[in-house]
Amino acid sequence: MGNLNWISKILRFFVFIIIILAGWFTWSNFKPHPQRAPRSFPEPAKKYDLGKVLVIYYSAGGNTAEIAQRISTMTNGILLEIKTNKQYPSVPMFYAKVFFESKNKQYSEVEIPTFDLKDYDIIFIGSPVWMYTVSLPVLSFLSERDFDSKIVIPFGTQGGNSGNFFQRFALETKNAKLAKGIAFNKVSGTEPAVLDGQISVWLDEVEKEIAALNN
After folding, report:
1. Domain count, the chain
2. Are 153 and 181 in contact (CB under 8 A)?
3. Which range marks the domain in which residue 36 is found?
């Protein structure tokens, strides 16, 4: 009899947990993915002459947008945002939705202002890291493009692990000369001046690599 009481308690506990999780997933499904307010940055200590630069990005919460804007400022680049027709929910339903769509290759329809590759020498492309790889809107964008031997430089924003982000990016980027990419970790928790320093260190390396690719 004692064993039955323990089993009953354990079952009630698991039912309670399931109800809590179901409520959490349902709540998050109706709550849009949070947007972070932009921060103020100082004038960059160094600017880079890399030629005619285009910075294309998709940002779900604001982190990738922040990096893209700083790259644009430091390189005097044109900034273009990838927009999607889908509204992504908050965590945890966000991860469930991304996992399902990734598994079934349900890429988003995306919108981006018209641009001509011939007008640019260097193209930076930024994406958040979703489920250890490139975000679905950026994958959708890449699937529709041929980069015609242009130099393309990826950058990502992540919470801790970039997984196969750069391998997948390279696989999906058709006819591009890829330069060294970088994933910025925990952008919102990094002070603007420190973030600028990280971008500058990376752009110093990119500058040398571009010179090598152009020779």
Report:
1. 1
2. yes
3. 31-214
